[in-house]
Amino acid sequence: MVLLTGGLVALLVPLIQGQDAGWPTWTYLTLGAAVVLLLGFAAWEVGYARRGGDALVPPRLFTHLAFSGGVGLAVVYFAAFTSIFFVLSILWQAGLGHTALDTGIMLVPFALGSIVAWPELCSWRTASNARSRLVVLSRALASRSTAAGELLMPSSPCSW
Q1: For residues 10 and 40, is the Cβ–Cβ distance under 8 A?
Q2: What per-residue confidence (pLDDT) applies to 147?
């Protein structure tokens, strides 16, 4: 756990503070240390699993292409998806001059669409049969309703 925690801290601190500090040398050295620590964690996990231990992340899972691809996709998805609400909030409040309440109201349709879609997203039946179209439809509906909320918001630059 120390290697993983140290690696993640060494990765995130320079990414968070580097630009404000003007990307000094310590940021690049710390990012290099992050790579070393995370590779050390991976090597530790492989060795621990070979010795019969219960690894935090069983290395054998990464031999399956579906799992490795899913992990990569999840990292990209959650890195982009969670930040979009932060960016939209800053844009709507600082950029377009809306209040926090207006911004929240604009995001409510997406939240409601997510609530409606959640039982289907968590269902094994959905993933294994044709009803998966319902998941796609509910996500599309949530996105469209967010766009409609933006268009209908008073004083929006996109209002008609």
Answers
A1: no
A2: 60
